[in-house]
Amino acid sequence: MTLNTTCNECGGIMQEGYILDVVHGGVLPSIWVEGKPENSSWSGLKIEGKTKYLISAYRCEKCGFLKFYAVFGRSDK
User: Fold this and answer.
1) What is the SS3 assignment for the chain?
2) What is the pTM of this model?
3) Which of 2, 7, 30, 37 could form an S-S bond across to 12 if both were Cys, CB 3.0 to 4.6 Å?
């Protein structure tokens, strides 16, 4: 898959990055999880057995537009 690194809004250059999740005891990159959120009394949300991917984020250097892709491969978290 070839990613488009040109901004859809203004034609500027998209810079690669990621979205950061701050968790108790550290920081982690955000993860895309299939399906709708389901509450869990133990961990907050039920995610076991669901497909998960790390999120790659691109930000336009000119206008700040954000574009997200789930492309880094499966995450086991």
Assistant:
1) CCCCCECCCCCCEEEEECCEEEECCEEEECEEECCCCCEECCCEECCCCCCEEECEEEEECCCCCEEEECCCCECCC
2) 0.71
3) 7
